[in-house]
Design goal:
The chain has 333 residues and is α/β, with parallel strands linked by helices. It has one domain: Carbon-nitrogen hydrolase (Nitrilase/N-carbamoyl-D-aminoacid amidohydrolase, 4-Layer Sandwich), CATH 3.60.110.10. Helix content is 27%, strand content 20%. The strands form 2 sheets. It has a 6-stranded mixed β-sheet. The protein has a 6-stranded mixed β-sheet with strand order 6-7-8-9-10-11, covered by helices on one side. The longest helix has 18 residues. GO terms for molecular function: hydrolase activity, acting on carbon-nitrogen (but not peptide) bonds, in linear amides.
Length: 333
C-alpha cells in the first residue's frame, strides 16, 4: 500500500516505571495510561519492555543476571493471562492500540521477554525478544514480528537488545515495516549507558531503513523507589522516550526529571516515508556481495577473490617504508 493512502497516526511513547512482582499495580497503571492516551487522541501507545511484570534489565544489568530461575518463574505469565486480557479490554473500550511487555511463561516451559501489541477488534501480535543479552534464564525468539494494522500502517517490534544489531532493523524494513516499535528496559545506573546508546543509534536505524521509530525505556525493580524519592545516580533520568522520523530526525523526546507516569506524543505523517534516503539505499543493496553475512562465515570472505582484492604476501606482515635524512648546512656570511 502506498504511504500516500495511509492516514496520519498519533502515537505515544509512555514514560512508565514498573515494580518487579507488583503485577496488579503495574496493570492498573497501564490501563489508566491507555485511558489518558485516548483522551489525547492517541492511536497507538507504546509501553516499555516488561512493563506488566518488571524483572528485566539490559546488558550489564547485574540484577537481571543474579536473578534465580525460580524468581523469574514467579513473575512469568502467559500471553493470554488476566494481565494481558485487562490491557486488551482497555484497548477495546478506548480504541487505542497498545504494546505492552512481560516475562512470558511459554507452554513448553521456556520463558521469554515478550511484547504483545493489542489492536482494537481483538487482534494481538506477540514478539519474543531475539537477543536476551545477560538474561541467562530467558530463551531466544526465533522470528521477526511484522504485521499490518487497520490504519494501513505496517508495524514491526524489536525489544531492547534486538535493536543493538543493525541486521534486525534492516530485516524489519525488508519485510515492509514503516514503523518500528522499540521498547526497552534497564535496572538502574549500571545500564544508563545503554539508554544513551539507544538514543544515538535509533535515529540511524530510522534513516538507514526509511521508517519511523518509537522508543520507550524504563527503570525496573528496586530502583523505582529511589527515582520516586529523587535519590540515586539514576534519579534524574529514570525513564526515557523518543519518537524519530524516517529521515533520522528526533520529533520529540523526553525523560529527564519526570515524576509519575507520563507520555510523549507525536503525529506521524506517512508522506515523510517517501522522503527518506533510506529507501534509495534499500534499492541499491547488493546481496550477492555480502550474502555470507547470513551464515556467519565472514572469515572466508577474506579469501574470496571474487568479492575482495586478494592479499599479497608483502601485505600480510610488513609494509614498505622509505625515508631520508636531510641535514641543513648553515652558511656563514
Amino acid at each position: 500500500m502506498s504511504s500516500l493512502s495511509i492516514a496520519t497516526l498519533r502515537v505515544a511513547s509512555m514514560l512508565f516505571t514498573s515494580r518487579r512482582g507488583a503485577t496488579a499495580d503495574n496493570v492498573a497503571r497501564t490501563v489508566a495510561a491507555i485511558e489518558r492516551a485516548a483522551r489525547d487522541g492517541v492511536g497507538l501507545a507504546v509501553f516499555p519492555e516488561a512493563c506488566l511484570t518488571g524483572g528485566i534489565g539490559g546488558p550489564g544489568s547485574s540484577d537481571a543476571r543474579k536473578m534465580r530461575r525460580t524468581e523469574l518463574r514467579e513473575l512469568a505469565q502467559g500471553v493470554d493471562s488476566a494481565s494481558v486480557l485487562a490491557v486488551a479490554d482497555a484497548v477495546e473500550r478506548t480504541g487505542v492500540a497498545a504494546g505492552v511487555g512481560l516475562i512470558e511463561a511459554a507452554p513448553n516451559g521456556e520463558m521469554f521477554s515478550s511484547y504483545v501489541v493489542c489492536l482494537p477488534g481483538g487482534e494481538r501480535h506477540v514478539h519474543r525478544k531475539l537477543q536476551p543479552d545477560g538474561e541467562r534464564h530467558l530463551a531466544r525468539g526465533d522470528r521477526f514480528t511484522v504485521f499490518d494494522t487497520r490504519w494501513g500502517w505496517r508495524l514491526a517490534v524489536l525489544i531492547g537488545g534486538d535493536n543493538y544489531l543493525v541486521e534486525n532493523a534492516r530485516m524489519a524494513a525488508l519485510l515492509g515495516a514503516q514503523l518500528l516499535v522499540a521498547p526497552h528496559a534497564r535496572t538502574g545506573a549500571c545500564d544508563a549507558a545503554s539508554n544513551e546508546w539507544m538514543r544515538r543509534a535509533l535515529p540511524a536505524r530510522a534513516i538507514d531503513n526509511g521508517m519511523f521509530v518509537v522508543y520507550s525505556d524504563s527503570v525496573h525493580d528496586g530502583v523505582h523507589e529511589e527515582i520516586q524519592a529523587g535519590e540515586g545516580e539514576d534519579a534524574g533520568e529514570g525513564r526515557a522516550a523518543a519518537i524519530v522520523d524516517p529521515c533520522g530526525h528526533v520529533i520529540v523526546q523526553d525523560g529527564q526529571g519526570i515524576r509519575g507516569d507520563e507520555m510523549i506524543v507525536a503525529d506521524l505523517d506517512p508522506a515523510l516515508i517517501g522522503t527518506s534516503p533510506g529507501h534509495r539505499w534499500l534499492d541499491a543493496r547488493r546481496p550477492d556481495l555480502y550474502a555470507r553475512l547470513a551464515t556467519g562465515r565472514v572469515r572466508e570472505m577474506q579469501l574470496d577473490a571474487r568479492a575482495f582484492e586478494p592479499r599479497t604476501a608483502r601485505a600480510r606482515g610488513s609494509v614498505p617504508v622509505s625515508f631520508a635524512m636531510v641535514r641543513r648546512e648553515r652558511t656563514r656570511g
